[in-house]
Amino acid sequence: MGTLTKRATVYFDPAMHRALQHKALATSRSLSDIVNEAIHHALAEDAEDLAAFEERLNEPLVSYETVLKELKANGRL
């Protein structure tokens, strides 16, 4: 964890908290490090999704009904 950190109160389900504590002990890491890493991965995944949406912004929209018709016409449904 970096030197500039912010403190927050987070409430976990008791079983989740116990699992995090066990993982922290097993990996010789702090619970904060594990939670920070998980949040980092989740936010990075969100950023990738947003970038993918941005790349496809100008693609034509295809309705759900059209997709179903195409699948049926191709024998996939």
What is the compact description of this entry?
This protein has 77 residues and is an all-alpha fold. It is 64% helix and 0% strand.
Q: Which regions contain 5 or more consecutive residues with pLDDT less than 50?
A: none
Strand content: under 5%
Please write the string of helix (H) and strand (E) elements. Answer: HHH
Q: Work out the helicity level.
A: 55-70%
* Nearest-integer average pLDDT: 94
What sort of overall outline do the alpha carbons produce when their principal axes are compared?
Answer: elongated
Number of domains: 1
Oligomeric description of these chains = single chain
Largest sheet: none
The Rg value, from CA coordinates, equals 21 Å
User: Could you give the count of β-strands?
Assistant: 0
Distance between the ends = 51 Å
Structural class: mainly alpha
Number of helices: 3
Protein name: CopG family transcriptional regulator
InterPro entries: Ribbon_hlx_hlx (IPR010985)
